[in-house]
Amino acid sequence: MPKLSRIFPILTLAAATFAFATTPTLLDINTATPAQLKSLPGMGDAYVRRIVEGRPYTAKNQLVTRGILPQAAYDRISSSIIAKHAAK
After folding, report:
1. What percent of the chain has pLDDT over 70?
2. Helix, strand or coil for residue 31?
3. How much is the pLDDT for 14?
4. How many beta carbons lie within 10 A of that of residue 32, not counting itself?
5. Which own/partner pairs from 69-76 qualify as long-range (CB within 8 Å, at least 24 positions apart)?
6. 3-state DSSP: the chain helix, strand, coil percent, rounded to 5?
7. How far apart are CA 20 and CA 60, in angstroms?
8. I need a surface site. Which of 27, 30, 57, 61 has the fewest CB within 10 A?
9. Looking at the predicted structure, is the pLDDT value of residue 2 above 70?
10. End-to-end CA distance of the chain, in Å?
11. Contact 82, 26 (CB under 8 A)
């Protein structure tokens, strides 16, 4: 039977690798392609077009405050998006 001290580092590495691999990547609404935006839940052509035409955004909640998306649509995608500020 293997010693716990030999198995523990392997299990720790495996857990860290799994956590890293499953960390979701946030989609920047200022630079995402229409195809990337359309991959978000509930995003059809009309919403995608409105998001692209409304760029740039300084905060992701501007999708709602500017009337780009209704609150329900925003709620579905808010955990998957970010609005990075453009470099000056």
Report:
1. 70
2. coil
3. 58
4. 19
5. 73/42, 73/43, 73/47, 76/40, 76/41, 76/42
6. 50, 5, 45
7. 24
8. 61
9. no
10. 60
11. yes
**pLDDT at site 85:** 80
Tens-place pLDDT, residues 23-44: 579 999 999 999 999 999 999 9
48: CB partners within 8 A, 6+ apart? 34, 37, 38
C-alpha to C-alpha distances, 80 to 11, 44, 55, 67, nearest whole angstrom: 29, 16, 17, 19
Query: In the chain, what are the domains?
Result: 25-88 (1.10.150.320)
Which pair of tokens denotes residue 4? Answer: 């716990």
